[in-house]
Design goal:
Elements (H helix, E strand, L loop, with lengths): L2 H5 L1 H6 L12 E3 L1 H7 L4 E4 L12 H15 L3 E7 L3 H12 L3 E7 L5 H12 L3 E4 L9 H20 L4 E3 L6 H19 L8 E6 L3 H12 L5 E6 L8 H18 L29 H14 L8 H13 L8 E4 L8 H4 L13 H4 L9
Parallel strand pairs: 2-9, 3-4, 3-6, 4-5, 7-8, 7-9
Antiparallel strand pairs: 1-2
Helix pairs in contact: 3-11, 4-5, 4-8, 5-6, 8-9, 8-10, 9-10, 11-12
């Protein structure tokens, strides 16, 4: 039984849930990286191994989201992301696993090799792919996105007789955030079992705030004093302190309303410390600091990070270690990247079978820092 349901049995009756991942994910001490950074207690939470099909931080969210989809008897799900969205791909893969059709509304983003892989794998999984918007962080983008979404919603309503179930970008709905409340309780068990000391800081990538928000609330429920260090990888319009506190409070209220034994906690701006300096010029554009961190992790530990999310997060941890602020402290890096290989599945696919607007990602050069 998952930790959330064991600690709060009433939630098991109230929350829909479908098991998708392989939990608990391992905690591993990074000896060589720690020696390189000058800190003796640095660990990694291997959520890159969170599912056989596809790892990263998405399976935890989708266990609760797709559970609710199945309970609602919807047949299709719709979600949003960049052209190379890990969330859209994970949704497509796990939706297919539980018998659902997935519709991905994908916005333009800087080109990278992972964009090509994710598009091909989404196609392989039978996802319906639609281009929308003018860019993830464009001020004029949202009206275009809404228009494209409304068109597809109505189209599917006419064809199927009901609307698709909507999943917010990143899977950061209230139910998706619950997945990381459970993750924090899982970590609490591992700490109690002696797998690692209680960390003072937990570094995690922050794109739609769901992972960081869930961990922040879950740590409080687990009676841990660890502080989450969310490293922002997109613009302030999407990730900011006020919005994160509001999200945490909404999830806290939801869980309290379903099980009165779940405590009502108080959160303020002092409980959220979003790191702002590592996002770079725009979403999904790699940075020198991020790619240096990717290289360092690969060299020291043989663990793959990426230029959009986890490399920038490790860059923040590396900076803090080098300036001495982590000396003598236990630190946890929460790896939100998928490390499951699906190259065999896409090896024979032709990108010309994708909708034409996505062909450009295969004809254009990838961004200069993508040296994979």
């Amino acid at each position: 039984m998952i930790p959330l349901f064991e600690q709060y049995p009433l939630l098991r009756e109230k929350l829909a849930y479908v098991p998708l991942g392989e939990f608990p994910t391992p905690v591993q001490k990074l000896e060589r990286l720690g020696a390189e950074l000058g800190i003796s207690q640095v660990y990694i939470k291997r959520d890159d191994l969170s599912g056989k099909l596809y790892g990263g931080n998405k399976p935890r969210k989708l266990e609760f989201i797709l559970g609710d989809v199945l309970r609602s008897r919807a047949k299709e799900v719709m979600t949003f992301g960049g052209a190379g969205s890990n969330h859209a791909l994970a949704t497509a893969m796990y939706a297919r696993e539980v018998g659902l059709k997935s519709i991905s509304m994908l916005m333009p983003q800087p080109n990278a090799r992972y964009v090509r892989r994710n598009l091909l794998m989404s196609h392989y999984c039978g996802a319906e792919l639609h281009p929308c918007g003018s860019g993830l962080e464009s001020v004029r983008n949202m009206p275009l996105v809404y228009a494209a979404a409304i068109y597809q919603l109505l189209r599917h309503r006419l064809r199927k007789g009901r609307l698709p179930y909507f999943i917010p970008p990143g899977g950061s709905s209230l139910l998706g955030v619950v997945g990381f409340v459970n993750a924090a309780l899982e970590l609490g068990r591992q700490i109690a079992g002696g797998e690692m000391p209680e960390p003072e800081y937990i570094y995690v990538a922050c794109g739609t705030m769901g992972t960081a928000a869930g961990l922040t609330l879950g740590l409080r429920a687990a009676r841990l004093t660890s502080r989450v260090v969310p490293v922002r990888i997109c613009g302030e319009r999407f990730v900011n302190t006020g919005a994160m506190i509001k999200l945490i409070n909404k999830v806290n209220f939801l869980l309290c309303s379903l099980d009165a034994s779940f405590a009502k906690f108080e959160f303020s701006e002092t409980d959220v410390d979003i790191r702002l300096d590592y996002a770079g010029q725009r979403y999904a554009l790699f940075t020198d600091e991020g790619m240096e961190a990717v290289s360092l992790m690969g060299k020291c530990e043989g663990i793959k990070l990426d230029g959009t999310y986890t490399g920038k997060t490790m860059a923040a941890l590396k900076h803090d270690a080098k300036n001495g602020s982590l000396r003598g402290k236990a630190v946890l890096f929460w790896n939100t990247l998928n490390s499951r290989d699906f190259s065999d599945a896409i090896s024979g696919l032709d990108y010309h079978d994708l909708p034409r607007p996505f062909h450009r990602y295969f004809g254009e050069e990838v961004q200069p820092l993508d040296r994979e």
